[in-house]
Amino acid sequence: MKTCEWCGGLQASPCVTAVYWELPDGTKAVEITDTPALSCADCDMVYQEELTIKEIEDQLILIDTKKLPHTITFQQLMQTERILKRNYFDFS
Description:
This protein has one domain. The mean pLDDT is 92. A hairpin with a 6-residue loop joins strand 1 and strand 2 (29-40). The chain has 92 residues and is of the alpha+beta class. The protein contains 2 helices and 4 strands. Strands 1, 2, 3 and 4 form a 4-stranded mixed beta sheet that branches. This is YokU family protein. InterPro entries: CHP03829_YokU, Znf_MqsA-type.
């Protein structure tokens, strides 16, 4: 169990869920299934950790999103061939 980022409770546990993400160019949204998440038994919130969010956003910048189907699994997204080597817009 982990501490919930929303309520601070100690009942957050790993799970997978579907998320919907707008592509960086704003042309469409995609459903990403089987996405790693945390589910809190105290507040019922299901959310992605910051690392997962960064992985998704970086990957969407680095791949040719025109080839993406409307629904893709998290694993398939992460395995999609990159056209850039890294996210040149990440200054963190």
